[in-house]
Write a structure and sequence with these properties.
This protein has 159 residues and is mostly helical. 75% of the residues lie in helices and 0% in strands. The two termini are 56 Å apart.
């Protein structure tokens, strides 16, 4: 896990004069969540040519199996190669689907984070704000539970 917060003892307002010379080059900015989504999309993009090749192999194997089946020679080895190539194609397709779903989830979380969290917070402020939001959400959940239970209790008393 990467430490995205300021170094210990660096709490307080930032230096208005800016960082000392060479400090920015020493520590690169923390990666943005969108970068992870882009990396996952790049993996999916890299799978497209592989998928195209595997589709071609599956079609060649399928056509050979069809030709052999029509000539009544019934070569089960060819049929097995065709099934294997189709399974290989589908496994690559499934991998691409998972990559795209993961990229979508990463993007959604990044958008939610930017929507509900201020971007100019220090690491400690970010954690405190997140804890406060979780506590508030738990309070709302508890209020809804109590209200739902009151409705159930009220309807039972009327019957």
């Amino acid at each position: 896990m990467m430490n995205q917060g300021p170094p210990p003892g660096a709490a307080g307002p930032p230096n208005p004069a800016g960082p000392p010379a060479g400090a920015a080059a020493a520590r690169p900015p923390p990666p943005r969540p969108e970068d992870a989504g882009r990396q996952i999309l790049a993996k999916s993009r890299d799978l497209v040519p592989v998928l195209r090749d595997k589709w071609g192999v599956a079609m060649r194997e399928g056509s050979q199996a069809l030709v052999l089946a029509s000539s009544e020679r019934g070569d089960t080895n060819q049929q097995n190669r065709f099934e294997s190539s189709v399974e290989d194609f589908h496994s690559t397709l499934d991998q691409m689907e998972l990559n795209l779903k993961c990229a979508l989830e990463t993007t959604n979380q990044s958008q939610s984070s930017s929507r509900y969290m201020l971007g100019n917070l220090s690491y400690h402020q970010y954690i405190a704000t997140a804890k406060q939001q979780v506590a508030f959400t738990n309070q709302i959940k508890d209020m809804l539970k109590v209200a739902a239970q009151d409705i159930v209790d009220h309807s039972v008393q009327q019957n």
